[in-house]
UniProtKB/TrEMBL annotation:
One of its GO terms (cellular component) is mitochondrion. The lineage of its organism: Eukaryota, Metazoa, Chordata, Craniata, Vertebrata. One of its GO terms (molecular function) is S-adenosylmethionine-dependent methyltransferase activity. It comes from the Eukaryota. One of its GO terms (biological process) is mitochondrial respiratory chain complex I assembly. Residues 9-55 form the Methyltransferase type domain. This is Arginine-hydroxylase NDUFAF5, mitochondrial. Belongs to the methyltransferase superfamily. Keywords: Methyltransferase, Transferase. Pfam families: Methyltransf_11. Signal peptide: none annotated. Coiled coil: none annotated.
Length: 57
């Protein structure tokens, strides 16, 4: 039997330029931070995140 390290999400950052979109987020068990920002000028230092996922509609 091989033991696998399970990756977990400690925090979730939702970033959008629209305040309305940020207000329409779902409840989550993960601590979630909503940040209103333009994707070209994000208020985070380099290498802040381990994983980034983008969803354009």
């Amino acid at each position: 039997m091989v033991a696998h390290k399970q990756e977990v999400v400690d925090q979730l950052f939702l970033i959008d330029i629209s305040e309305k979109s940020l207000r329409n987020t779902r409840e989550s068990e993960i601590p979630t931070h909503c940040v209103m920002a333009n994707e070209e000028f994000l208020p985070f230092k380099e290498n802040t995140f381990d994983l980034v996922v983008s969803s354009l509609r």
